[in-house]
Amino acid sequence: MNRIGHQAAAQAAWLGFCTGERLLLHDSALSWQHVLTGMVVASSMCADDWSPDSDQGGVMAKIIPGGHRGPTHMPELVAAVLFGLTHVVGDDLDWFVLAAAAAWGSHLFVDFFWGGIPFLIPTLFGHKKRIGTKLDTGGPAEHWMTLVLVTLAIPLGYVAFGGDIPASWIVS
Ligand SMILES: [Zn+2]
To answer: Distance, CA 33 to ligand 1 centroid (Å)?
Structure first.
C-alpha cells in the first residue's frame, strides 16, 4: 500500500481509539490537544523513517537485519515492544504509545493484505513465507480501502474532538 493508504489507516485507527475512549470514559477521555498531537504522531510513524518501513532504506535499513518486512513487520514483536513501552513511559505518555500503536498496528494490518507479513514464531524456526494476501499496491482495492478509511475518519474525528454524541451511543 502507498503512503496515502497507510496515512488513512493510521488516522482511522487513532481516531477510532479516541472515539472509543470518549464513548467509554466520557469526560476523562483524552483532551482535544492530545487527540491532535496523537494525529501528528500517528501520521509521522505510519510511513517512512519512523514506521515499520524504516527497514526499506537509509541508516535503519543497514542496522535492522532481515531485509524489508523483517523484524519491524512481525506483529508479536511489535506488540511486545509497545507493551513494554507502556511500562517505561508511564501514565502521562500513554497517549503517545497508543498513537504509535495506531500507526504501527494499522501499518501491519494493511501490509498483511498488501503483500503479507512475517510472523515471529514461524520465522524463528526458519519459515520464510509471509502470511497474508497479495493485493496490488496502487490497485483498485487500495483506492477503495483508502476512500473507506478516510470516510470513516471524518465521523470518528468529530467524536474524538468532542463533537456531540447521540445519546443512544453512550455506554454508561
Ligand atoms: Zn511495511
So the answer is: 29
Ligand 1 center to residue 26 CA distance, Å? Answer: 34
| pLDDT tens readout for residues 66-77 | 788 988 999 999
75 alpha carbon to ligand 1 midpoint, in Å? 11
pTM of the full structure: 0.91
Secondary structure letter of residue 134 according to DSSP: B
- The Cα 40–Cα 58 span in angstroms is 22
Domain that holds residue 113: 3-169
Q: Which helix (H) or strand (E) holds 112?
A: helix 94-113
Count of structural domains, the chain: 1
CA 86 / ligand 1 centre spacing (Å)? 23
